[in-house]
Design a protein that fits this description.
Elements: E1 3-4, E2 21-27, H1 30-45, E3 49-55, H2 66-72, E4 79-80, H3 88-105, E5 110-114, H4 118-129, E6 134-137, H5 149-160, E7 163-166, H6 170-177, E8 185-187, H7 191-204, H8 208-212, E9 220-223, H9 227-230, H10 233-247, E10 252-255, H11 258-266, H12 270-274, E11 279-282, H13 287-295, E12 299-302, H14 306-314, E13 318-320, H15 329-332, E14 336-338, H16 343-354, H17 371-380
Helix pairs in contact: 1-7, 1-17, 3-4, 4-5, 7-13, 10-16
The structure holds uridine-diphosphate-N-acetylglucosamine.
């Protein structure tokens, strides 16, 4: 049986220890920072755990990284590996080499990785080869699309993890089907939602709407960066058509991810977007401004994973510009719908929402702000001083 930890204190009392558990938490890319922040906070409060943060440097721009540390009150990294951008193979290899060096001098009882980015699989692989158990937060999510680099990272990380912390029940089925032993799976809730709930009130005080000249519920917030949507000319053109379709109906705020900006520029499409007066191009926004923007939008159009979950909790309709999702609970219970890559479907779905026929949803089970406490409680129950993997 998998364990469902509704009581964060469940495992605190296990295994008396003399030394605190040495927990190395890894973050590398923008969507990782809001996931490790509450885990590090929960670890700080737990006497049996001593946690450190390693930043791989996969994302390095001020607006993709440093800003998040400031806004989330995230502790400065104990180590910064500075790997930067490269092809997937070289980037993953560089993270592995640097993280191996880090573990040479800083032994760990458990290495905790989050999400599905290249830093996730790279550090998990290094740890498991050193017989250090891996904890994977957000395990078991599957899009079924192996052309997504994140899907490969998820599949492989889950195969080598010892602790699989899941956000929704569909993940358990996926993991069991792939041969993961049920006792390794822990249904704990969603750490990204821990962060959202903690920062929601603060975000509401940000003047971003006034700065952009927007009224609440009278605009769409949009993020697009998947390689499949922006890396190839035909896909990038289709993405721009989708934006234009939306912008005919209401103003669209578009904070541009660096890869999207670079690809649109490369394909000669950036000027077309820039000259559309209903599209408000922005630099990547910080966590609080983007949260404020999402919370008051009429709808959100995205190809991101995490934003599907955040809009579900905010109760804001989300149109996902993809053919699949690894987060089905956002559709079955939340406010998310897949609109595929067809601008006509976006038009229809937008018209429905603007006519008041909104998707209403409910907050999924255990997305209650306590996921990090549950994770730390499970890990604190592990005997310290030994990195050996239980067989
Ligand atoms: C990565 C994750 C993706 C996540 C996304 C969020 C993988 C496989 N993908 O994609 O799951 O949703 O982050 O942002 O790990 N760049 C900068 N500055 C930065 C970071 C990146 O300019 O600080 C540019 C570089 O041109 C780089 C490109 O973005 O080549 C891609 O960056 P990378 O981290 O490799 O992947 P993302 O596309 O950001």
């Amino acid at each position: 049986m998998l364990s469902t930890l509704t009581d964060a204190t469940t495992e605190h009392s296990m295994a008396p220890r003399s030394m605190p558990l040495s927990l190395v938490c890894v973050a590398g890319a923008r969507p990782n920072f809001m996931k490790v922040a509450p885990i590090l906070e929960a670890a700080k409060r737990h006497p049996a755990v001593r946690a450190v943060l390693v930043h791989t440097g996969q994302h390095y721009d001020e607006k993709m990284s440093a800003l998040f540390f400031d806004e989330l009150g995230l502790q400065q990294p104990n180590a910064y590996l500075g790997v930067g951008s490269d092809t997937h193979g070289r980037q993953t290899a560089r993270i592995m080499e640097a993280f191996d060096g880090y573990l040479d001098s800083s032994p760990a009882d458990v290495v905790l990785v989050v999400g599905d980015v290249n830093s996730t699989i790279a550090c998990a692989l290094v740890a498991v080869k050193r017989l250090v158990p891996v904890a994977h937060v957000e395990a078991g999510l599957r899009s079924g699309d192996r052309t997504m680099p994140e899907e490969i990272n998820r599949l492989l990380t889950d195969q080598i993890a010892e602790y699989l912390f899941i956000t929704e029940r569909s993940a358990e089925k996926n993991l069991v089907r792939e041969g993961v032993a049920p006792h390794k799976i822990h249904f704990v809730g969603n750490v990204m939602i821990d962060t959202l709930l903690r920062h929601r009130d603060l975000a509401a005080t940000r003047p971003i709407l006034t700065q952009l000249g927007l009224a609440p519920r009278a605009y769409a917030a949009c993020t697009l960066h998947r390689p499949s949507n922006v890396d190839v000319m035909s896909a990038a053109e289709n993405t721009v058509r989708a934006l234009e379709t939306l912008a005919k109906r209401l103003p669209v705020v578009l904070p541009l991810h660096p890869r999207t900006r670079a690809r649109l520029e490369h394909f000669g499409l950036l000027e077309r977007v820039r000259s559309n007066s209903s599209i408000l191009l922005q630099e990547p926004l910080g966590y609080l401004d983007f949260l404020a923007l999402m919370a008051q939008a009429a709808l959100v159009l995205t190809d991101s994973g995490g934003i599907q979950e955040e809009t579900t909790v905010l109760g804001v309709p989300c149109l996902t510009f993809r053919e699949n999702t690894e987060r089905p609970v956002t559709i079955t219970e939340g406010t998310n719908q897949l609109v595929g890559l067809d601008p006509a479907r976006i038009a229809d779905a937008t018209d429905e929402i603007l006519a008041g026929r909104c998707l209403t949803g409910r907050v999924p089970e255990l997305w209650d702000g306590l996921a990090s406490e549950r994770i730390v409680a499970v890990l604190a129950g592990r005997p310290s001083g030994s990195g050996a993997v239980r067989q």
